[in-house]
Design brief:
With 130 residues, the chain is α+β, with helices and mostly antiparallel strands. 43% of the residues lie in helices and 22% in strands.
Length: 130
């Protein structure tokens, strides 16, 4: 005898759970966002590393001291040759001798990083050392 009804729930089809996950469109969009972020990071990191090298060179030049503005510029050019600094040169430094005897060396430059097509990223770098 075949029994239909609540007693035979073992043979009844089980309910499907609602599917959860990422759709193909979501996966493609997420991948595009991650690829763009990776592209941006790969292009910005070398510029940031060069900025840190410039700050380090300026600090070393300022602590070493010098007699004239030209001495500071030549010393920076030596550090720039060693650290492969190409964004600025010694002639781009602003050297200011204060009345209290301290010398302040500062720099300012703009880095334009092409991304794709006509789009580019512009970063303004500034720094100084005493």
């Amino acid at each position: 005898m075949i029994v239909n009804g609540p007693a035979s729930s073992a043979s009844a089809p089980t309910r499907r759970r609602a599917q959860r996950g990422l759709s193909l469109i979501g996966l493609l969009l997420g991948g595009a966002v991650i690829a763009f972020a990776a592209l941006l990071v790969m292009k910005v990191v070398p510029s940031a590393l060069e900025y840190n090298a410039i700050r380090s060179a300026i600090t070393k030049v300022a602590t070493a001291g010098g007699n004239s503005i030209r001495d500071y510029q030549v010393a920076f050019d030596r550090y720039a040759a060693i650290d492969d600094i190409t964004s600025i040169a010694g002639k781009d430094l602003q050297v200011e001798k204060r009345s209290d005897g301290h010398t302040v060396i500062s720099f300012e430059y703009e880095k334009r990083i092409p991304l794709f097509g006509p789009a580019s990223l512009v970063i303004e770098y500034r720094g100084s050392a005493q």
